[in-house]
Amino acid sequence: MNINDGGRRRFEDNEHTLRIYPGTISEGTIYCPIPARKNSTAAEVIDSLINRLHLDKTKCYVLAEVKEFGGEEWILNPTDCPVQRMMLWPRMALENRLSGEDYRFLLREKNLDGSIHYGSLQSWLRVTEERRRMMERGFLPQPQQKDFDDLCSLPDLNEKTLLENLRNRFKHEKIYTYVGSILIAINPFKFLPIYNPKYVKMYDNHQLGKLEPHIYAVADVAYHAMLQRKRNQCIVISGESGSGKTQSTNFLIHHLTALSQKGFASGVEQIILGAGPVLEAFGNAKTAHNNNSSRFGKFIQVNYQETGTVLGAYVEKYLLEKSRLVYQEHNERNYHVFYYLLAGASEEERSAFHLKQPEEYHYLNQITKKPLRQSWDDYCYDSEPDCFTVEGEDLRHDFERLQLAMEMVGFLPKTRRQIFSLLSAILHLGNICYKKKTYRDDSIDICNPEVLPVVSELLEVKEEMLFEALVTRKTVTVGEKLILPYKLAEAVTVRNSMAKSLYSALFDWIVFRINHALMNSKDLEQNTKTLSIGVLDIFGFEDYENNSFEQFCINFANERLQHYFNQHIFKLEQEEYRAEGISWHNIDYIDNTCCINLISKKPTGLLHLLDEESNFPQATNQTLLDKFKHQHEENSYIEFPAVMEPAFIIKHYAGKVKYGIKDFREKNTDHMRPDIVALLRSSKNAFISGMIGIDPVAVFRWAVLRAFFRAVIAFREAGKRHIQRKTGKQ
Ligand SMILES: Nc1ncnc2c1ncn2[C@@H]1O[C@H](COP(=O)(O)OP(=O)(O)OP(=O)(O)O)[C@@H](O)[C@H]1O
Ligand SMILES: [Mg+2]
Questions:
Q1: pLDDT-above-70 percentage for the chain
Q2: Minimum mean pLDDT among 426-430, 636-640, 673-677, 704-708: which range?
Q3: How high is the pLDDT of residue 369?
Q4: CATH at residue 15
Q5: What's the average model confidence in pLDDT over 147-163?
Q6: Do 130 and 161 belong together in one domain?
Q7: What is the span of the domain harbouring residue 578?
Q8: What is the mean pLDDT of residues 562-590?
Q9: A single GO molecular function, which one (predicted)?
Q10: How far apart are CA 244 and CA 155, in angstroms?
């Protein structure tokens, strides 16, 4: 016998406790606990009950199983095994987390004619009353508190009752709660079986509030409001990083496309569903808050015919976090796609793209290489677990899934290879390191010149041109061309800037191609009236140990979103009540207009001061901070740390965040140098040269035109060959 068999036998022998509710058969007993094993029969259990409760042995009894309150009673045959029935109940019922009435066994008396004796309502009420008294005396657990699925119906609405209600619902795996027409979702961090087709059907064309709150209900309301009012709709999602915005967006899009499939399916649904994983692979990364954090904002607009059939869709992206490509904070990762590629590429791809292991790339290994001591003599790395894999992640599978999704959005195998080759080029580019040529001057050289041919092969640019662009700056003054060597720090910035620009151009190109695939030719027809539903999913509010320009931009975007919410929920709603003559006491709410003005109002908003200092050659981090101080010292929404720290603190709607001023100017003016643009546009690879520095729409049109001419030429050649064959034969 092997260990598994032993394990199984142990499980079979486990003793369970069945709670049997005898009702009126045994007055005064609420339930009787009966020990039983998996194979104990209903007849055996009833025998034990008769003995325990001293019941009349001349009578005939049966066990009835009740599933869910008010549900039917299922009579067990004498040979049925109650424990096995109980094992099929939901986990919550087994842990007695549901109230006793939801799932239970009842003892019933069988009449002489074989029918079941259910007893009178009066006696059932008596038992219930008895139960209530026992609970009052503390002999039985208190029943679960009643919860409200709409916070507006709370009898006493304050922060405590509101949170208690949400907590109480969450404990029962009810993650959704309404506040009028707003839906609050609490991230369960586990899969709940509430998103299957049964739920899609259930929430189709239903009235908000009739069923348990659900994200599908929100999608459904937007869909039907769009059709009935013939007006475009928008669903705005807000929450801090990791709260579930992207997941909710995916559920919404899933439901919005599922709803329209009642008409004919245009195939666009498939592309919409494929677009999600592609965008997430290239635009999401593991952060300290979220293993799949969106590092860009997106607005997905699903377009419909007036009949409600999906026509097409459109994705708009905002602010990809480029700095992540070259540096990640401790315990964070670069964009997912790099890890997918390195884990999932075939042997052939590995050699074609010169792939290495993640730990061999500077852009991926900075987080794991945390030096313990700074002295060169005993420079060693701490033995923390690596950050290349995330618990529960299967990178190979993710790579396959990505390939499939790319196929769904129409990326041909050749395009996919070009993309992967470019990703490899970016990683190798990051490995280029510099050293000073001599101690006497500042001129620099590349320490590892063997990387250059690899990058030049992958980018299909001349090696010498690549070398020159990485170590020297070319400037043209009046009639004169100057070539100046970069200083060490400048060269590193140029290398990183080239990598960031390549990745960001690739991301733009991907979004553009997805949009092209999502665009339906019917969208373009003048006479088809289209309606749309937009879903906004931006990066959530962030407050890390070190916050920089990226967090500043992300939090500003969230501040604007909060303002939008305030406008709609408080201001406009109250104005509407006033206009309708409804008596109403204005509700005080925290208006964040002042914070938004501090950041963006012309001419002294922080962003404008930053632009000024970014264009001023003599500016430093300190001059920028001094400017902030000088203009806004009196503003209560900004503070400056008491200790001489190069930072400032903003009082956001979601809390105070401290931003380090370092790199603000550089990141604000992070664009590609003209000589790098010239280098990449000289690439023999049309995919790379076309992607850089010009409008992707133009690139695409040019590609279509080229394909058209190629097709015409091929057609002509085929015609010529055909004539030659014919005349040859003759
Ligand atoms: N309804 C849900 N059911 C199950 N798991 C969920 C649900 N919502 C979120 N999660 C889990 O939480 C994780 C984080 O959610 P998500 O990526 O949507 O957060 P986010 O708000 O978009 O964060 P960020 O602002 O960082 O992009 C998901 O990867 C998923 O595991
Ligand atoms: Mg997200």
A1: 82
A2: 704-708
A3: 47
A4: 3.10.20.90
A5: 88
A6: no
A7: 549-662
A8: 78
A9: GTPase activator activity
A10: 29
Instruction: Tell me what the mean pLDDT of segment 450-460 comes to.
Output: 97
Measured CA to CA, the distance from residue 45 to residue 199 in angstroms comes to 38
Residue 18 lies in a domain: yes
Q: If you count DSSP H runs as helices and E runs as strands, how many of each does the chain have, helices first? A: 28, 21
Ligand 1 contacts CB of residue 243 (under 6 A)? yes
Catalytic option among 41, 246, 257, 496: 246
Ligand 1 mutation target, pool 177, 189, 241, most atoms within 8 A of CB: 189
pLDDT at 271 over 90: no
Both 19 and 118 in a single domain? Answer: yes
Annotated binding-site residue numbers for ATP: 239-246
Decide if pLDDT at 3 tops 60: no
Cis amide prior to 358 (ω within 30 degrees): no
Does residue 155 share a domain with residue 126? no
- 330 C-alpha vs ligand 1 centroid, how far in Å? 21
Q: Within this chain, do residues 616 and 715 fall inside the same structural domain, yes or no?
A: no
Name the token pair of 220. Answer: 């459904």
Q: Domain count of the chain?
A: 4
Question: 244: Cβ below 6 Å to ligand 1?
Answer: yes
Structure tokens at 555: 């939090």
Q: Regarding predicted confidence, which is higher, 302 or 582? A: 302
Report whether residue 540 contacts ligand 1, using a CB cutoff of 6 Å: yes
Catalytic (active site) residue 683: no
Out of 321, 348, 376, a domain closes at: 321
Does residue 189 line the site of ligand 1, with CB under 6 A? yes
With the C-alpha atoms ordered 629, 635, 637, 641, is the resulting torsion angle positive or negative? positive
* pLDDT number for residue 683: 93
Q: Tell me: do 175 and 266 sit in the same domain.
A: yes
In a domain, 359, yes or no: no
Any idea what the CATH number is for the domain that residue 251 is in?
A: 3.40.850.10
User: What is this structure's pTM?
Assistant: 0.74
Q: Where are the beta strands (DSSP E) in 653-726?
A: 655-660
Report whether 554 contacts 650 (CB < 8 A).
no
Mean pLDDT of the chain: 83
Q: Does residue 599 have a pLDDT over 80?
A: yes
Active site residue 284: no
Q: Kindly state if the Cβ of 555 falls inside 6 Å of ligand 1.
A: no
Is residue 678 situated within a structural domain?
no
Q: Which of 250, 290, 334, 456 is catalytic?
A: 290
Q: CB of 432 within 8 A of CB of 452?
A: yes
Q: Is residue 475 part of a domain?
A: no
pLDDT band at 141 (very low <50, low <70, confident <90, very high): low
Helix pair 606-614, 621-632: axis angle to 10 deg: 150
pLDDT reported for residue 70: 46
Q: What is the pLDDT of residues 172-190, one digit of tens each?
A: 889 999 988 899 999 999 8
Nearest-CA residue for ligand 1 atom 15 is 244
Secondary structure of 5-68 in HEC code, one letter for each residue: HHHHHHHHHCCEEEEEECHHHCCCCCCEEEEECCCCCHHHHHHHHHHHHCCCCCCEEEEEEEEC
Using CA atoms, how far apart are residues 304 and 313, in angstroms rounded to an integer? Answer: 9
> What would the DSSP string read from start to end of 375-419?
-STT--B--PPPSSS-TT--HHHHHHHHHHHHHHTT--HHHHHHH
- Asked if residue 284 and residue 160 are part of one domain, the reply reads yes
Q: How far is the CA of 539 from the centre of ligand 2 (A)?
A: 6
Across-strand partners of 109?
61, 117
> Is 542 labeled as catalytic in the residue annotation?
yes
Last residue of a domain, one of 136, 159, 184: 136
3-state secondary structure of 590: coil
Q: Say which residue the tokens 């303002």 belong to.
A: 563
pLDDT, residue 702, reads: 55
